[in-house]
Amino acid sequence: MPRVTVTLLCTGSECTFHGLYDPDEHKMRYCQDCTTWFHIQCMEETDSVTPTLPPFIRPLDPSAALPVSQEARKQWRTLLRYPIQRGIDQIGWLLSFEILILRIRTQESTSGCPPDVNSFLIANMPLAPHLAHYLDTYLTIFLNQPSSSTIYHCPCCDCYI
Fold first, then answer.
1. HEC assignment per residue over the chain
2. Contact 20, 6 (CB under 8 A)
């Protein structure tokens, strides 16, 4: 019996794939503002070098924040440029880190850069228990993604995704 992998997802008004998503074939981007996934073929490329990020919420007591090194801030800014995307170009099989990137952006909007970025990534890498022994491999793949990924304009709002 063939497996059914197609799910209705993209809601772009002129969706190339009629709203269908096939995880074996399609790459998609997520708009945090619209909370919607779109095929990359259903969006226009932009000149933007970073996706639109949620606004930062200032902590009530900024003096309670732990000090963060310049190196950690630089690494964190690179991670914030990663788009929320299903599928990675450099890998022959589709791999998705959208949950980790959402956790990074949530951290950024509420508390800013964590003092130890690698510990944050390890603690927030969403792996199934049977894949836990691959943590280092997935972390390496995640950290070695190109930061100059193409950014697209959301077809429903003014965000860059």
1. CCCCCCEECCCCCCCCCCCEECCCCCCEEEECCCCEEEEHHHCEECCCCCCCCCCCCCCCCHHHCCCCCHHHHHHHHHHHCCCCEECCCCCCCCCECHHHHHHHHHHHHHCCCCCCHHHHHHHHCCCCHHHHHHHHHHHHHHHCCCCCCCCEECCCCCCEC
2. yes
pTM: 0.83
Neighbours of 123 (CB within 10 A): 10
d(CA 144, CA 34): 28
Each residue's pLDDT tens digit, 134-157? 999 999 989 987 766 789 999 999
Rounded Cα distance, 36 and 105, in Å: 16
